[in-house]
Amino acid sequence: MNADELAIVRAAYDREMRRGALPDTPDARVERVGAVVRYTADAAGGGGGAGWNGVLWSDLDEETADAEIAAQVAYFAGRGVGEFEWKLYGHDRPADLADRLRAAGFVPEPTETLMVGRADELAALPVEPPEGITLRVVTDEAGVDLMMDVHAKAFGTERPAIRHLLLTLLKEQPQTLAAVVAMAGDTPVSAARMEMRPGSSFAGLWGGGTLPQWRGRGIYRLLVAHRARLAAARGIRYLQVDASADSSPILHRLGFATLGTTVPYVWTAKP
Which of 208, 196, 114 is nearest to 155 (CA)? Predict the structure, then answer.
């Protein structure tokens, strides 16, 4: 993609996936409050929801930023949410928004690269499963547990919130999720998912993780191509990834382009 097309795609991404975001599950909600779009996973109230809470988009300036940050902290703290994330993109305003978030007690996590690729081009990648690898489509709790096993070993952390999300989507909105596990015999060695929004030009690729001893064999590439074929068949135009430093070089070689950067800024309630 050239610079002009990238600018158009980035504007579409902001419009559809940030300002026009939809809730992942029936018990969550998206609110457009003034110059902020926020996502609340525990929409029924009571705090402590298992899902993601945070700010997806903002349109701030030097005069409004501090007050808006304080308002969102007060909102989530008032709901008893233990932590929430302000998802900051490199092109967000004002230019010193990151400094203002840190001053308000937010802690940045590692920078991710926002990347996009055309689904039809990625679907046409010549990919064959590595020897001994088969793909298992996730349709039930047993499949989700295989994914969680891979993620725990690949990333070194348990992810109960992701397990909750996947089980909820499979039950309530299966058309929005495509999840897959790469199996070596009876052993799960890699897993990934794709989340799709009705009417959106974008589908998000998430959770791509491979056990260390199985990396470098083309499994990650296989899972990208598999999901791209599903997206292209549904008429989805772009695949989007918040790529880690490990993933971004692979995605670039596959044909993804860089739209910018994103940093999760996390606020945690004090004990």
Answer: 208
Taken in order of first residue, the domains within the chain and their CATH numbers are 3-113+263-268 (3.40.630), 117-259 (3.40.630.30)
Using the Cα atoms of residue 137, residue 139, residue 141 and residue 144 in order, give the sign of their dihedral: positive
Entry pTM: 0.90
Reported as a single tens digit per residue, the pLDDT across 206-220 is: 999 999 999 999 999
Q: Is the dihedral of CA 267, 268, 269, 271 positive or negative?
A: negative
Q: Contact at 8 Å (CB) between 235 and 196?
A: no
pLDDT above 90 for 27: no
Whether the CB-CB separation of 201 and 117 falls below 8 Å is answered with no
Which residues are 230's β-sheet partners? none
227: left (phi over 0), alpha (psi -120 to 50) or beta: alpha
Q: Cα separation of 222 and 179, whole Å?
A: 13
Per-residue pLDDT tens for 252-264? 999 999 999 999 9
**CA–CA dist 98, 106 (Å, integer):** 9
Burial of 2 (0-12, 13-18, 19+ CB in 10 A): exposed
Compute the distance between CA of residue 57 and CA of residue 105 in angstroms, rounded to an integer.
Answer: 19
The 3-state DSSP composition of the chain as helix, strand, coil percent (nearest 5) reads 35, 30, 35
Cα gap 14→16, rounded to integer Å? 6
- Encoding tokens for residue 224? 């990208």
Alpha carbons 258 and 46: distance in angstroms, whole number: 39
